[in-house]
Structure formats: C-alpha cells, structure tokens
Fold this protein.
Amino acid sequence: MDRLRQRADFLAVANGARANSPAFVLQSLDRRSLGRDDSGPIRIGFTVTKKNGNAPERNRIRRRLRELVKRLDPVSMQPHHDYVLVGRRDALSRDFATMLDDLRIAFSKPARHTARGTHKGPPKGRGQRPDATAPASRKPD
C-alpha cells in the first residue's frame, strides 16, 4: 500500500465515490475508470482542513486516521483504487474502536457516487430569462 502525495491525485479522488462517517469521509476512485491500465498498489491519502482546529489537533486527527488504516485488513480494500480519508473534528473525541468499525463499514458498503459535472439543464444564473426569448422592440426615433 502506497501513499498519495500529489495534489492532482487528491483532486482526482475527490471526484470519485464517497462514504460518510461522523469522524471522517472516505473518498475512493477506481483508477481503471480513468482509462489507465493500472496494476499498481492501493494508494491512500490523508487530509484534514484548517477548520478542524490548530496544527496539533489536525496532526492528532491525521495520526489517528493513519493508525486506523494500519489496523485495517488490506483485503477489505479494492485493488486498483485510490482512497482519501478526510478527517473531521469528531475524530478527536470519537472512540478508536468505533472509528475502526466505521472504517470497515465504509469500505464494505456500496459507496455513494457523486456525479460532479453531469448536471443537466441550463446553468443557473446564466443565459437569457425565459421571457426574454423575443427580441426587444425599438421605438422609432
């Protein structure tokens, strides 16, 4: 199992499937869906945003997430996938055994796929109004 370190990899996984938990969000992406013939190892990344606290708190959240992954059986992860664990504030106070169960459930349940960029219909706030289809009439000078 390798680590994700490039920003582009984190952004690619962010457009994949998600599984939510009180302590973290698990994002996953099948690398084969990107058109790559990839037989590389499973890769995992960790991120905690600044809204979750100061640096020591964020580091503690990140350490707890790394330890969760170490204790998890790698067989539960799917091959040819990239995963990102996004830490939440509840990871500081949540029981470690409960978080480990949450992670097992997140890897086992079918993930909810977010369809970003597939919105159908006209974009909001752009284009003409529905009543503005006919050209405006001009008054003669």
Summary: DSSP finds three helices and six strands in the chain.
